[in-house]
Design a protein that fits this description.
The complex is a heterodimer of chains A (561) and B (80). With 561 residues, chain A is an all-alpha fold. Chain A has 22 helices and two strands. A two-stranded antiparallel sheet of chain A has the order 1-2. In chain A, helix 3 crosses helix 8 and helix 5 packs parallel to helix 11. The radius of gyration of chain A is 24 Å and the shape is globular. Chain B has three helices and two strands. The relative contact order of chain B is 0.15. With 80 residues, chain B is mainly α. Chain B has a two-stranded antiparallel sheet. Helix content of chain B is 80%, strand content 5%. Classes of the chains: A mainly alpha (561), B mainly alpha (80). At the A-B interface, helix 5, helix 10, helix 11 and helix 13 of A face helix 1, strand 2 and helix 3 of B.
């Protein structure tokens, strides 16, 4: 069968599977819609969390970013996994014991204030919208590259699928489709990685192959250091970024990960506190399988690309180079007219332009794998984008129906609340689709926003809400606002207002906009403490609530009040 | 209950210290020093930054799970 038929077949089969699961797990109560009835097993929740978390960017772009930044790319690997340690140890078990449905629920109750709740809702909505627009765009890109459809069609089809299972199934439908999507995406990621690892190093495990030796007996990473240095690049295993910037970015990503509402909400779906702890562990195992393979895919990819193009005759390049030139992900320009490709660090003489997504998307072709593997990678990329989009849409719809509507109109019936949640989910799908088709030019830029905001708004107030009995309403609101305003201003200034100044020389303390969430978080902590100690302590019933969430005993299912 | 909470905080402090050490310590602050040591085809600092820290994170969470389950039983605050 040819490539296109395989791709249609595998992507089509995976879609049929997701829709089948959605019909089978249709939600019938708000409890099922918001937290899947609170009866998800820790392993299933771990799988779903992994799929929820790993987005189109993790699947398609992360390996490529590491390929071109080498050691500096470690910030993403450590940052996006280390956050789960914070989540498991500091947040998930206590939020599960608290036993409501959303992050703003916790903020509103713990800080006995609807103002605090509204600030939290606005943060949750903002973070989720930024994120979901990127996912819809990802779906469109996969469709256009593999299925030869226009991006718009891809987005519309993606919207229809997500609409179907998120609106119908709510959290219950999403959870079980995410379990299936994890299986699809991890299989699709590992098959090419294993084959390439075998071909290059003789070791079938990519994580070990990364430390293996290439054909002439030299370790792959040393060889890569040498090749890149010869071409004028930094060595692969040493970086360009300053230590302080690496430190700040890693911390901002870790804390941001722990504070993302669509990840936190997954831990409301398990039956007990100890299941919440355990399922964070499972989630990280499933995430780590991809995240430890990614640096191997990255190194293999850049090594193979250089070996098969650098100083090679333009007429005799491998077929995959020509294929991906058509989609404009690879560009070759023979500047010195010698008929050969020169890949160099100096932009004036460099003749090869490679998009970062190539390292994953073209990996089956680079390894000369059969056509079905290419179709599999397409289905995997789609699974990664759809699963994350669905999780985010649920946060959006829950925020609207529960945190805004139900808070201010507590008399509405459960049936009506469920209907509002579905309408909100539908509205969110349409809006996300619109942004997927007409992406604001800054989609890639604003991802820094999502993590920066999660780090500087949610994380400190949730953490202090559990570990301190003294932090009060005034402190939490002031802290969240201080962290938010500072982080938004800093990122906006360097990303949108004066992008020409976005260099290390102009940054405050040498911290890039990606890492500024760390300072925003510190500011939030400081203001939170300062204001709390100047104002009266929280009332007695809140003190009791805090003592209550600190012990696992007596956790019922997530309940409605 | 205060003793339960104190022991919980001690566990957290120890595990978070290791969390910091393997990522920010070995992967960033002392990466050059560790890179002079080799682990097979890896430089050790680079290995911690791209592989070792992630494996450590997984182990840390499972140690936490086991330790907390034991603590819950010891203080009879477990759920069943």
């Amino acid at each position: 069968m040819d490539l296109l038929t395989w791709t249609y077949l595998l992507v089509g089969l995976s879609f049929a599977l997701y829709i089948g699961i959605a019909i089978w797990t249709r939600a019938s109560s708000t409890q099922e819609f918001y937290v899947a009835g609170g009866g998800v097993s820790p392993i299933a929740n771990g799988l779903a969390t992994a799929a929820d978390w790993m987005s189109a960017a993790s699947f398609m772009s992360m390996a490529g970013i590491i390929s071109f930044s080498g050691y500096d790319g470690s910030v993403y690997l450590m940052g996006w996994t280390g956050g789960y340690v914070l989540l498991a140890l500091l947040l998930a078990p206590y939020l599960r014991k608290f036993g409501k449905f959303t992050v703003p629920d916790f903020v509103g109750d713990r800080y006995y204030s609807n103002k605090a709740r509204v600030v939290a809702v606005i943060c949750a909505l903002f973070i989720s919208f930024i994120y979901v627009a990127g996912q819809m765009r990802g779906v469109g890109i996969v469709f256009s590259r593999y299925l030869e459809l226009p991006i718009e069609w891809g987005v519309v089809i993606g919207m229809a699928i997500v609409f179907f299972y998120a609106v119908l199934g709510g959290m219950k439908g999403i959870t079980y489709t995410q379990v299936a999507q994890y299986c699809v995406l991890i299989f699709a990621y590992l098959v090419p990685a294993i084959f390439i690892s075998m071909q290059l190093t003789g070791n079938p495990i990519p994580q070990l192959g990364l430390g293996g030796e290439v054909a002439d007996g030299v370790p792959l990473l040393d060889k890569l250091d040498g090749i890149l240095a010869d071409l004028g690049f930094e060595e692969y295993t040493s970086g360009k970024k300053s230590k302080s910037d690496l430190f700040m970015i890693t911390l901002a990503l870790m804390v941001g990960t722990a504070g993302l509402p669509h990840v936190i909400v997954r831990f409301f779906t398990v039956p007990r506190v100890r299941d919440a702890r355990l399922s964070a562990g499972y989630a990280l195992v499933f995430i780590a399988i991809l995240y430890t393979a990614a640096p191997a895919v990255a190194a293999f990819g850049i090594y193979n690309t250089i070996q098969s193009t650098s100083e090679k005759s333009i007429d005799a390049l491998p077929e995959w180079v020509n294929n991906w030139q058509q989609t404009n992900l690879i560009g070759i320009e023979d500047k010195n007219g010698d008929g050969k490709v020169q890949y160099l660090a100096d932009p004036a003489t460099n003749e090869l332009r490679i998009d970062k997504d190539i390292m994953v998307l073209a990996s089956p072709e680079i390894a000369s794998l059969p056509n079905w593997v290419v179709g599999l990678v397409a289905a995997g990329a789609m699974a990664a984008a759809l699963s994350t989009a669905a999780g985010l849409l649920l946060v959006i719809s829950t925020s609207v129906s529960r945190d805004l509507f139900k808070t201010f109109r507590p008399e509405i019936s459960e049936k009506k609340e469920l209907r509002i949640a579905r309408i909100a989910a539908a509205g969110a799908v349409l809006l996300a689709g619109y942004f997927g088709i007409n992406p604001p030019g800054f989609v890639a830029e604003v991802v820094a926003f999502a993590f920066g905001l999660a780090a500087s708004s949610f994380f400190p107030v949730i953490l202090l809400g559990i570990f301190s009995t003294r932090i009060n309403r005034e402190g939490a609101i002031a802290g969240m606002l201080a962290g938010l305003v500072f982080t938004i201003s800093y990122i906006s200034y360097f990303k949108f207002i004066s992008p020409e100044l976005n260099t290390a020389a102009h940054w405050w303390w040498g911290i890039s906009p990606e890492g500024i969430g760390t300072i925003g978080m510190a500011l939030n902590f400081l203001v939170c403490f300062g204001v709390s100690y100047l104002t009266p302590p929280p009332p007695k019933n809140v003190q009791e609530l805090i003592q209550e969430i600190r012990i696992p005993k007596g956790a019922g299912k997530a309940y409605d009040h | 209950m205060e003793r339960y909470w104190k022991k919980n905080l001690q566990t957290l402090a120890l595990l978070l210290f290791i969390w910091f050490l393997v990522s920010f310590g070995f992967g960033i602050l002392w990466v050059e020093e560790l890179n002079t040591i080799r682990l097979g085809g890896f430089k050790l600092g680079f290995w911690f930054a791209q592989q070792g820290s992630i494996y450590s994170f997984v182990v840390l969470i499972f140690i936490y799970v086991i330790r907390m389950n034991a603590l819950d039983r010891e203080f009879k605050v477990n759920e069943d």
